[in-house]
Amino acid sequence: METLVYDTAGLVHFIASIIALITGSLVLGMKKGTWVHRKVGYIYASSMLVLLITAFMIYQLFGGFGIFHIAAVVSLVTLIGGMVPVILRKPEGWLTLHFSFMYWSVLGLYAAFVSEVLTRIPETPFFNMVGLATGIIMFFGGAYFYLQKHKWEKQFGDSLNQKFKNRIN
Predict the structure, then answer these.
(1) pLDDT of residue 74
(2) What's the rounded Cα separation, in Å, for the pair 139 and 162?
(3) Closest-CA residue to 102 (of 158, 55, 42)
């Protein structure tokens, strides 16, 4: 495992990434707005935060700031963009912001995972593998998102917004 994980930060990063992959996949597939969805979602968000913090402690690949650090910044933006509306329950349409950003957060995690796997194949061109993995996952994931977004807005927006309105009153 020495070539997979180089130090404590790498080990924590690896463990957090496994937890995030599992919980992110569960959240995408489960019924939205339930108690379980919220709990698993908070585990996802927490593990992603740990994963992102440790990502900025790992410099073996480039000896400094590299492409995966840029991806971590983008990932942090999507995570914040998905969690702030849930915490504040604002602005109007916060639910659409939440599921949109969180969907892209998990999709980015999938792209990072596949990139990491492909770059470990001996004698493969690093940037080609990262680009290929990210491009394919984002293209097909984005197409699926585009096709489903209006259905999800109607399905989740109506029922979940009503649940939250009932809870407040």
Answers:
(1) 93
(2) 33
(3) 42
